[in-house]
Design brief:
Length: 282
């Protein structure tokens, strides 16, 4: 499969794979799915996403929109909600279009739909407002449950909390468990892990991005994001026990170590886009 979009900033790359240092999710988040995006039937890349309305699958803009290196934008998507590992199908992964007779991953998902990027997505991770949000409008409702989108300004209350490192987020994704210059380990299985808040106010955050640590375990109990996690949910549980989806995973540092960023859902821009796509807001 072709590579995902390359980030505009040095050492930053889209996180378009499984949560490093996490554990198999099982049935913990059944509405989080694995998606393959295609152009004229050719599989391009894979991402993670979440059901937020009956037929609306929320993911990243760089999953649903144009890749400036390839000069194309996906025109269809296939989605699976099986926790995995999702087996490979009959396609040869040779850059050719899927045939009508091809079955399974990456050509024939459990559900299919049309990708819709945010209208501001231009193929670059222009900081801080990347517009890195998109949806897939599915043709059928999966009926796997829905995540609740965080209310407006939800994350701002965390920015000034004492002990920011103690603010934990739950991340869920499919795919790469290890990334190095010469090796990639990808499982196509849903994993869940925990990341910690770094900041919301840096020049890279700017009110649009949530910056998290990518410890990938390392004795801290944390985890990290990597390729294929792009578009996956970032959840936060409030003091009343309500779980909110606060962001979608956007990009990370090279080889998936250091920090990662997620595009916030609680800002006016994201909320306007989600509302236009039929997503109920709180």
């Amino acid at each position: 499969m072709l590579a995902v979009a390359t980030a505009a900033l040095a050492l930053l790359c889209p996180s378009a794979g499984a949560v490093q240092g996490g554990t198999p999710d099982g049935n913990g988040h059944p509405n989080v799915g694995l998606s393959v995006f295609l152009y004229h039937g050719i599989p391009l890349w894979r991402c993670t996403g979440t059901m937020v309305a009956a037929k609306v699958y929320l993911t990243a803009g760089h999953c649903t929109g144009i890749d400036t290196d390839l000069g194309v934008a996906p025109d269809s998507a296939q989605v699976w909600f099986t926790s995995g590992a999702i087996p490979r199908g009959t396609h040869g992964f040779d850059g050719t279009p899927c045939k009508p007779t091809d079955t399974g991953y990456p050509c024939k998902g459990e559900f299919s739909g049309t990708p819709v990027p945010h209208p501001g997505w231009n193929g670059f991770l222009t900081q801080p407002n990347t517009h890195d949000i998109g949806v897939v409008q599915l043709t059928q409702a999966p009926n796997v449950g829905l995540s609740k989108v965080a209310p407006a300004g939800y994350l701002d209350t965390l920015a000034t909390q004492r002990g920011r490192q103690d603010v934990d987020f739950t991340i869920v994704g499919y795919g790469v468990q290890f990334e190095s210059p010469n090796l990639e380990v990808a499982l196509r299985q849903r994993f869940v892990g925990t990341n910690q808040l770094q900041n919301l106010r840096s020049h890279l955050a700017g009110g649009f991005n949530l910056i998290m640590s990518d410890s990938a375990g390392n004795g801290t109990g944390g985890s990290g994001t990597c390729f294929g996690d792009s578009g996956g949910p970032v959840f936060h549980t409030d003091s009343d026990g309500q779980v909110w989806q606060v962001a979608v995973i956007s990009y990370g540092t090279k080889y998936c170590h250091g920090s990662s960023a997620a595009f916030r859902l609680d800002n006016a821009q994201a909320r306007a886009f989600l509302s236009s796509q039929g997503v109920p807001l709180n």
